[in-house]
Automatic annotation (TrEMBL):
Species this protein is from: Marisediminitalea aggregata
Top-rank EC class of the record's enzyme: isomerase
Binding site for substrate: 28-31, 81-84, 94-97, 121
Protein name, as recorded: Ribose-5-phosphate isomerase A
GO biological process, one term: pentose-phosphate shunt, non-oxidative branch
Known catalytic reactions: aldehydo-D-ribose 5-phosphate = D-ribulose 5-phosphate
Record's function text: Catalyzes the reversible conversion of ribose-5-phosphate to ribulose 5-phosphate.
SUPFAM superfamilies listed in its UniProt record: D-ribose-5-phosphate isomerase (RpiA), lid domain, NagB/RpiA/CoA transferase-like
Any Pfam family hit: Rib_5-P_isom_A
HAMAP family named in the record: Rib_5P_isom_A
Pathway: Carbohydrate degradation; pentose phosphate pathway; D-ribose 5-phosphate from D-ribulose 5-phosphate (non-oxidative stage): step 1/1
Length: 217
């Protein structure tokens, strides 16, 4: 099975976590796009969605799914999103598509985080995928110097402006042996909006598409 077919399979598999008459949180990326497309089949059973990006909002609306402002919603039953890396502890690196901050906010509101990936995303230790860090533009050089002190090699993602008007530094060669501590340490640097480690609030369920079908971790 090729990677796109795996993404499609795992996107559809997440439908079983969607409860009727609820508002669901929706992430961003190529895997979630398959979930959104599958969601269209059951759109009349849900109240609507809260989205984590302009791109996902547009896709949801195009399929006739109502998109709510997070400030008008008290709780979300589930949040469904992909990841760039995920461990057996359900810790993740996210933000390859620059949507990490809104993803972290929307997922924080949800009772259950359902992570959907193909098996290429499973890793023993986080960090082979360069860690995305969203930064206030004026702080870019300062934050980069601080990230070097942590042992990383930050690279400015040229030409990318996030949905929040900020920039992204992708941190290579970072040894993330303790994801929860690293998540806190990087978030404490002045000028960092958030970083792409999702460990303080990891996933609750990880669905992985393999050649043998979708398995639940
Ligand atoms: O900012 C983007 C998100 O964190 C995505 O969920 C992540 O990059 C995975 O995307 P994809 O499903 O396209 O591999």
């Amino acid at each position: 099975m090729d990677q796109n077919a795996k993404k499609q399979a795992v996107g559809r598999a997440a439908l079983k976590y969607v409860e009727p008459d609820t508002i669901i949180g929706v992430g961003t990326g190529s895997t979630v796009n398959h979930f959104i497309d599958a969601l269209a089949d059951i759109k009349h059973t849900i109240t609507g969605a809260v989205s984590s990006s302009v791109a996902s909002t547009e896709r949801l609306k195009a399929l006739g799914i109502e998109v709510f402002d997070l400030n008008s919603v008290n709780s979300l039953s589930i949040y469904v999103d992909g990841a760039d890396e995920v461990t057996e502890h359900k810790h993740m690196i996210k933000g390859g598509g620059a949507a990490l901050t809104q993803e972290k906010i929307v997922s924080a509101v949800a009772k259950t985080f359902v992570c959907i990936v193909d098996d290429s995303k499973e890793v023993g230790v986080l960090g082979d995928f360069p860690l995305p860090v969203e930064v206030i533009p004026m702080a870019r050089s300062y934050v980069a110097r601080e990230l070097v002190k942590l042992g990383g090699d930050p690279v400015y993602r040229e030409g990318v402006v996030t949905d929040n008007g900020n920039v992204i530094l992708d941190v290579h060669n970072l040894s993330i042996v303790n994801p929860r501590e690293m998540e806190k340490t990087i978030n404490n640097i002045a000028g960092v909006v958030t970083n792409g480690i999702f460990a303080l609030r990891g996933a609750d369920v990880v669905l992985v598409a393999t050649n043998e079908g979708v398995v639940t971790r």
